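re the bet — no i am not wrong, look at it urself. input seq straight from the record:
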Amino acid sequence: MRVTLLPAAWLVATLLASCQPRTTASGSAVRTSASASAAAPVASTKPAPPVAGPEPVLAPAKPRVYIKNRFVFVRPRADVNADWIGFLWFGASVELRDEKPVGGPGCATFYAVQPNGFVCVDGKQATLASDDAEFKAVSGFAPRLDQPMPHRYAESMGVELHADLPASTRHWPTLPAFFHEPRRHVLPLSTVAYADEETVDGQAWLLSADLLWLKKEQVKLYPEISFHGVTLGDAWKLPLAFFRQAGKFKYRRDEAGKLTKSADTFALQSVVALGSQIQIQHGERYFVTLQGDDWVREQDAVLPTPRSVTPWGARVGSEDHTGLAPKNARHSWIEASVLGGWLLAYEGTRPVYATLISPGRGGIPQEGKNTLELAATPLGTFPISGKLATVTMQAPGEYVHSEVPWTQNFLKPYAIHTAYWHNNWGNLQSGGCINVSPIDGKWLFDFSEPSLPPGWHAVRWQPALGAPTLLVVHE
């Protein structure tokens, strides 16, 4: 998927219906505040004061550009007509490569930013002043890109959005044009992202990600999703078994050596390491767990199974002598099984991460049928062509998923992205995209190439960045 921006008067990132779920699943409310930790006790004795030394010489802070709006585009040259290579988001700042501005079509003052590209700094969308009133006012509500969930999220029951709360003590300075998304009504079953909440005259309000107000009673808050995969190394090694359904029994040997169903079950979305021993009984395969005497029936679990070769022909698990690995430092690639419901991330010939995914509810494509209409996930080998820390996905009929985190485009309109609206990992669920949990989404986003430069919100792959991460999707 390559997310397409609507005309400048809208500036809303959209996604076709293939990545939209048919229904959404609500849950219990998430916490909106955390209790303060207790203060540490004061020591009864004081150490001797340190001997004064020379004052350290601090390097002067390098100049930066401070972002006041959504979709502040990074261009490959000083020209607003040049196709964007990334964009910045309000509350962020990026170091300059050169303090000298340059003029160009559409903007009198472009600045070169790290690590590449140019940004128009007009004082309205972006500024060089860190104490700018508008920047300071909005920066506290910027997406938290150091966390799996950059915002908090809820399901709409028919939301009305408001620019102001007259009785509120919180008032914004004048915000740039197009700061807010254009819609003022969010349909039921759509989702909203919010950054804060406030109670005014007994009414609870939520502050949306684009700083509009909505009544809390008009949404159902999503619960926190805790599921995530495992890093492969010392603690976890393949083979592994994940459990995508509850109530799958543990098998144990009886006195005659036959495997029989016990009263115990594996927990939903749990993972266990498997040993090398396999037993076939009545035509079914059973795998012994690495710890204890429990056995797993193959059909009850998800068993990620690496393919035998990398996309460039090196044998998985062996040293690569092909000389054909992609030109990035880690030779990264990702393998996903649609019907298996699993994903493996690799560095070269070595798998480094394993988890469950939720591909399209239509499974795999069928010959002669429209993949989008089937809600199937396409098969093949694809490059990661662009990455967006958050993006609002829109389907026909004005249904939206607001500020979807950790979106990685691989084939228009398909992407790997976090789904905060369901917790059905390992099963067919999405409209065709590869859904992952918030924690997995953040891990994969940080893992893949191209990397998101510091302070940026989105990046498109360019040949100068080196080879992108490859995604192999199969049955």
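see?? Residues 1-18, 21-48 have pLDDT under 50 and may be disordered. told u. also Residues 56 and 291 are 54 Å apart (CA to CA). so pay up
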